[in-house]
Specification:
Helices cover 50% and strands 15% of the residues. With 458 residues, the protein is of the alpha/beta class. It folds into 2 domains: 219 residues, Alpha-Beta Complex (Spore Coat Polysaccharide Biosynthesis Protein SpsA, Chain A); 214 residues, CDP-alcohol phosphotransferase transmembrane (TM) domain (Four Helix Bundle (Hemerythrin (Met), subunit A)). Strands 1, 4, 5, 6, 8, 9, 10, 11 and 12 form a 9-stranded mixed β-sheet that branches. It starts with a strand and ends with a helix.
Length: 458
């Protein structure tokens, strides 16, 4: 199936304020470039860009689409009196039988397009739960048992998102509408009257995302002004937030990360570059622990805890999630364990400075060994469960979600380290981390076994 992207100076879906909405920058790339990235992620590679601008102008706003495997055809049409209906007719010879229509000023979730391309026949995408969109400017639809009955009416039970799938059989209708000078929404109404048109309700698309550990409603937004662009960006930032987090990540890091992400997303930095930078800072904290700069190293771990959440969010807000990005969790585990080893090494090397009566100089290293052992076991149980069940262990039941708030992980352990250093008793920090790690490993193992056994019995 080919995808037709109208990029029209006189597109009836745009107002005079933003004739070039597709070229506006959103999270580091133009809106039209973002559309192409999401199409590639949805497996749609045949694209026709229908534009009143020259190919050179359009390509100047497409910086990073060359390696996406897309086959893009550029079709330039005159903007003199050209309506969207007439422009689509001009593209009928290159579109083919069935095609997906995506206005260039619509920002959307890739899940919407993935569902839309699976629909058979003519289908309009609408949203029955769209209270956050303006009632004055939105195009309303009336549906009945999943079928579109009317579009462009004053009252309806949904809002047209701008996305739809059409077929070659609509061209005669569009030709009649073009002769009468009718706009695009009027043309769609003629199609609804003549054909059986299905409706895809965005609200019916499953919203649970396993990797996010929460319900994330499929997102879409029409850009009719720069104000819309700001609102769209804020909603995108909120949509990158994972659910079921520990106390520190949810109540502290989340707000800091989202503030940083809002501005960081406009820079040329990539998620992978941010991952590398996070690891460099993390190992700097390890070096500080090894060399005895304990307070500075401890403070740096809090910086890392914020940085560590940014790379994944940056990838999600740009729609550029990759398989390579998943290996980041392994590197996170590695630098985290290096903190405990670095701290334990220094304490073992300076037994007189941080001594505790009755323990040997190797005790901190022994504790660190236990921390690494139980952290590794707990992490393996967690990841193995997700691989088998397709859902995170921390999102299986109310108890698991509550336990996730304070289970053993670096965002909790860095508080133990900081407190121990302030009280000049960092060995107790290691003891506390070890106990927390043991409890977490036991709970994870028992809960994983329980849920897996219940799955076997079904």
């Amino acid at each position: 199936m080919k995808v037709l992207i109208p990029l029209m100076q006189q597109n009836s879906l745009l107002n005079d304020e933003t004739k070039e909405a597709a070229f506006l920058k959103l999270c580091g790339s133009s809106v039209v470039e973002r559309t192409l990235v999401l199409l590639a992620s949805a497996g749609l590679t045949e694209v026709v860009i229908l534009s009143t601008y020259s190919r050179q102008i359009v390509e100047s706003h497409l910086r990073e689409v060359g390696d996406l495997g897309l086959h893009i055809e550029y079709l330039t049409v005159s903007n003199a009196g050209q309506t969207l209906t007439e422009a689509i007719l001009a593209a009928k010879d290159v579109i083919g039988e069935d095609f997906l229509l995506l206005p260039a000023n619509v920002v959307f979730d890739a899940r919407i397009v993935k569902h839309l391309k699976e629909e058979r026949g003519i289908t309009l995408c609408y949203d029955s739960n769209s209270s956050h969109y303006s009632a004055d400017t939105s195009v309303k639809v009336e549906t009945d048992n999943g079928r579109i009955k009317q579009i462009g009416i004053q009252k309806g039970n949904g809002i047209y998102s701008g996305l739809c799938t059409l077929s070659a059989e609509v061209f005669p209708v569009l030709e009649e509408c073009a002769e009468k000078g009718e706009g695009w929404i009027e043309s769609l109404q003629r199609i609804v009257e003549k054909f059986e048109v299905q409706g895809l309700d965005v609200s019916d698309i499953p919203s649970y995302v396993p990797g996010m550990r929460r319900q994330v409603r499929p997102f879409w937004c029409q850009l009719n002004s720069k104000k819309d662009l700001k609102l769209c960006k804020k909603q995108l930032v909120q949509s990158t937030q994972k659910g079921t987090l520990d106390f520190h990540a949810w109540y502290i890091n989340r707000h800091i990360e989202n503030k940083i992400l809002y501005y960081l997303s406009e820079l040329r930095v990539t998620p992978n570059q941010l991952t590398v930078l996070t690891n460099i800072v993390a190992y700097l904290a390890t070096f500080l622990f090894f060399t005895g700069h304990l307070l500075t190293g401890s403070i740096l771990t809090f910086v890392v805890s914020v940085m560590d959440g940014l790379d994944g969010k940056l990838a999600r807000i740009r729609g550029k999630l990759t398989k390579l990005g998943n290996i980041e969790h392994s590197f996170d585990f590695l630098f985290e364990q290096s903190w405990y080893i670095g701290l334990a090494w220094f304490l073992s090397s300076h037994p007189d400075e941080f001594s505790i009566t009755g323990i040997g100089s190797l005790t901190p290293l022994k504790i660190a060994l236990g921390i690494v052992l139980f952290n590794g076991f707990a992490t393996h149980c967690y990841m193995q469960f997700k691989e088998v069940m397709g859902v995170s262990l921390s999102d299986c039941a109310p108890f698991d979600r509550r336990f996730r708030r304070f289970d053993g992980r670096k965002n909790i352990y860095i508080y133990y380290i900081l407190l121990g250093i302030i009280l000049r008793a960092p060995v107790y920090s290691l003891f506390a981390i070890l106990i927390h790690a043991i409890v977490t490993a036991i709970v994870y193992a028992l809960r994983a076994c329980k849920h897996l056994e219940e799955a076997d019995e079904k």
